[in-house]
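Before going further, learn to read the protein records used in this course. The integers have meaning only within a learned vocabulary of local backbone shapes. The record below shows the convention in full.
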Amino acid sequence: LQMAALGLGNIEEFPFVEPPGTRAIRDGAATLFELGAFDEEHRLTRLGRELSRLPVDPRVGRIILGGRDHGCLSEILVIAVVALVVIVMVLLVKPTGLFGRVFVTRV
């Protein structure tokens, strides 16, 4: 999403030091399309531009923007914070995560 917002071109042609796998690129683009950030031609939409300005995961950003649009932002922010905590916990629990293995109690 950030690469599209910055106009850096096709992600598959970008000279990454360690490029993401093809499947990761495909899954990411599919998620952004489902969120409404990309259109059918993989161009950034108005919603995608808004999402790119938020310093959170695009899925959580979409929840926040939905709350704003439906007049329930304060209630949605509570849900968004919980979602962000869960995302961080999942990243930490993965064997390749920053701390390797972390024991997490149920939220």
User: Anything to note?
Assistant: Residues 100-107 have pLDDT under 50 and may be disordered.
